[in-house]
Design brief:
Layout (H helix, E strand, L loop, with lengths): L1 H21 L6 H23 L3 H20 L9 H12 L1 H19 L5 H17 L1 H6 L1 H28 L4 H10 L1 H33 L7
C-alpha cells in the first residue's frame, strides 16, 4: 500500500513538471515548485500516519537536508563537482525511501535560493528526489555491495545529466525534439563525466564514515525506518 501511494505521488510529480513546461511554458515555475514541495512532503506524511515518527526523526531528517544544502554551497566554486547526489543516496540508504526523496527534493529547492531558483528547479527537485527514493528501495544491496553502490553512483551521475538536458531542450523549444536533445547530450558529455567522477570521489570519501555515524544515530534514537 505504501509503495502504491508513493508511486502515485511520483506520477503526479512527473505530470506537474510536464504541465509546467508544455502548457505553462515555464512561466509558472513558482506554482510548480509549490506543488512539488507539497507532494515531496506527502511520503513522509504517510510515514508519519503509519509509523508515527518521533520529533527526533524529523530533526535528524532536517539535519540531513541542511548538511546536503551546505555540501552544495561549500563547493560552489567547482561547477558540477559537488557531493549532493552522494549525500542524498546515503540518506535514502540509511533512513529509507521517503526520507531519501524528501532530502533530495527539498535540498534542491533550498540550495537554489543561493544558486538561483528558476524553471530548472523542479527538474532538480525531481531527479534528486528520485535518486534518494531508489536508494531507499535498494538500501540493503547498496549498503552491503560496494560495487553496486559505486555503480549506482555512476548511474545517478548519468541520469542527473540526462534529465537536466531534457529540461534544456524543453526550455528551448517548449516541446521535445529528439535531434536537439541528442545534440545537447553530446555537447554536455564533459559535464556528465564530472558528475560521474564527483559521485565516485565523494562516495569513496564519505560513505564509510557517514554510514558509521548515521547508524549510531539510528541505534541511539531507536529509528527503524530504512534499517540496513
Amino acid at each position: 500500500m505504501k509503495i502504491t501511494k508513493n508511486m502515485i505521488i511520483l506520477m503526479l510529480i512527473s505530470l506537474i513538471i510536464f504541465v509546467g513546461v508544455v502548457l505553462f511554458k515555464d512561466q509558472k515555475y513558482n506554482l510548480v515548485i509549490i506543488l512539488l514541495v507539497t507532494l515531496s512532503c506527502l511520503p513522509f506524511y504517510f510515514k508519519y500516519e503509519h509509523d508515527r515518527p518521533k520529533t527526533r526523526e524529523i530533526i535528524i531528517l532536517t539535519i540531513m537536508i541542511a548538511l546536503t544544502v551546505i555540501s552544495r554551497i561549500i563547493f560552489m566554486v567547482m561547477p558540477s563537482f559537488k557531493p549532493v547526489t552522494v549525500m542524498v543516496i546515503i540518506c535514502g540508504i540509511v533512513f529509507g525511501r521517503a526520507s531519501g526523496f524528501m532530502c533530495g527534493s527539498l535540498s534542491a529547492l533550498i540550495s537554489d535560493f543561493v544558486f538561483g531558483i528558476g524553471p530548472w528547479t523542479p527538474f532538480q527537485m525531481f531527479v534528486w528526489g528520485i535518486i534518494g527514493y531508489i536508494a531507499g528501495i535498494f538500501s540493503k544491496q547498496l549498503h552491503n555491495d560496494k560495487h553496486f553502490l559505486y555503480g549506482y553512483s555512476i548511474v545517478c551521475g548519468i541520469g542527473y545529466s540526462l534529465i537536466m538536458d531534457l529540461w534544456s531542450v524543453l526550455a528551448i523549444e517548449n516541446s521535445f525534439n529528439f535531434t536537439r536533445y541528442l545534440a545537447i547530450v553530446l555537447t554536455s558529455l564533459p559535464v556528465m563525466l564530472i558528475y560521474i567522477v564527483s559521485n565516485i570521489v565523494f562516495m569513496f570519501l564519505l560513505s564509510k564514515i557517514m554510514f558509521q555515524i548515521l547508524q549510531r544515530v539510528k541505534v541511539k534514537y531507536g529509528i527503524t525506518e530504512g534499517k540496513i
